[in-house]
Amino acid sequence: MSSLTEQKPAVYYNYVGGEWTESASRERLESRNPATGELVGYAQKSTETDILQSIDSVYEAYRTSDWGVNPKRRYEALLELARQIENNIEHLARLMTMEQGKPIRESRVELAGCVDTLKYFAGAARTVFGRSVQLEPGNFGVIAKEPIGVVGIISPWNWPALLMIRELAPALAAGNGVIVKPASLTPIISVELFKLIDQVPHFPKGIVSIVTGPGQSIGAVMGSSKKIDMISFTGDTSTGKTIMALAASNIKKLALELGGKSPNVVFEDAPLDKAIPLIGRSIFISAGQICMAGSRLLVHESVKEEVLFRLKQYTEKLSVGNGLLESTDMGPLVSQSQLDLVNEYCEIGRREGNIITGGYRLTGGAYDQGYFFAPTIIDDLSSDCRVVREEIFGPVLAVQSFSSDEEALALANDTDFGLSAGVWTSSLNRAMRMSRGIQAGTVWINTYNKNFPEAEFGGYKQSGLGRTRGVDGLMEYCETKHIHFEMD
Ligand code: NAD
């Protein structure tokens, strides 16, 4: 395997005030390949001093440049960044797979998503429309959309490029200055993308910055800084709650994209040939480390046996291994702690349910170097089991069955989360009833995991606050001002 990872470990710096800077701590974060344990590179282990400098520099660039009032400049900048990524996809995909572990094919898809998102928001930068309204005789109102100011983006490790760009693109399109704090497990791919930002001359110097380091210290400074007007956070629901509390310091605007426990609901009239591979993919993509994972399967009792038989066959054919191999379907988990967590949940599942396949760490040969876990299906679980209720963030599918549409809807909604759902049926009426009844930000009918920059995404209940993507996603990064004219 080592011939696949010949790249030398490099040192990655913060990008502050348009310059590459070293942390005041002079300490570094090690980034290691979760498939092999090899060192991928070093990033800065930044301190409070570093993040405060970064906040000051973005604040200053926002105040002194024309960025907030020059949509055409923003359009040019985002489009050029899209081109830069497009020209470097193979290099970036390789680096992302080495740092995060996901199959190279998934890395390419993720980066293509970054390009598409940047192109969409490049155009959207020129459409930050408000409204006007006649209010009473002689009184005319203009409802204007303006940038918020300085936005802090805190992003997770599971889709490190797209989830950063998904927020960076609309925040910049709306005219804000931005500071990014990427996850400590995946700082390198994030900084590598900033090297491309550095190549784009249309960005005013200092308008966008990245500082790597621990969430609990520098992320927390961002949450409480009075110079940051908004935090856009993607991550765990419990961290989201901490950030909400920090943001109270100056009543910061918040956009929260949090966890999920999403169901695929399979009725007796489901198109199973299409459903089986897509349901399998919905939970085993990124080794289940994806917020919208279809981690619960709710299946009508009359087709349960067939569905589980076919899903088991699908699962056992998956090739688990080093993501750099083109043949790999599922890579490792991202870290030892993630591996331990998934293992713990499987032990609970073993006690309270029936493991149909998987349920163990993969060992032997190259598996011993990384955090590989067998794709797992657990059946016969009750609604109060932790495997059904809690987000595992691993390749573990929890199965329950139902006997009526009402029961299916009740089970689908019996969760603290509400990020997404899949409904599988040939009946239009049933599809409509279920999609309106399920409390989730996205409901896919006879498909799953289809996302577009123009279609809003976000959570009901504890899966989040606000929407990302689409027109609403752009408006999240705007303030609204009423300008009132009274004529004599
Ligand atoms: P996490 O909450 O542990 O970390 C996310 C980010 O927050 C990281 O950059 C981390 O350094 C930072 N952070 C940690 N503690 C902090 C604090 N006290 N103050 C400020 N920042 C802090 O999440 P993770 O493990 O990186 O990601 C997995 C979670 O993200 C899962 O729950 C998943 O469902 C969720 N997620 C949601 C979406 C979505 O769009 N809804 C997308 C991807 C991931």
From TrEMBL:
InterPro entries found in the cross-reference section: Ald_DH/histidinol_DH, Ald_DH_C, Ald_DH_CS_CYS, Ald_DH_CS_GLU, Ald_DH_N, Aldehyde_DH_dom
An example molecular function term from Gene Ontology annotations: oxidoreductase activity, acting on the aldehyde or oxo group of donors, NAD or NADP as acceptor
Family the entry assigns: Belongs to the aldehyde dehydrogenase family.
UniProt keywords, alphabetically: Oxidoreductase
Name recorded for this polypeptide: Aldehyde dehydrogenase
Species for this entry: Paenibacillus naphthalenovorans
Pfam families linked: Aldedh (PF00171)
The keyword Oxidoreductase belongs to this UniProt entry's keyword annotation: yes
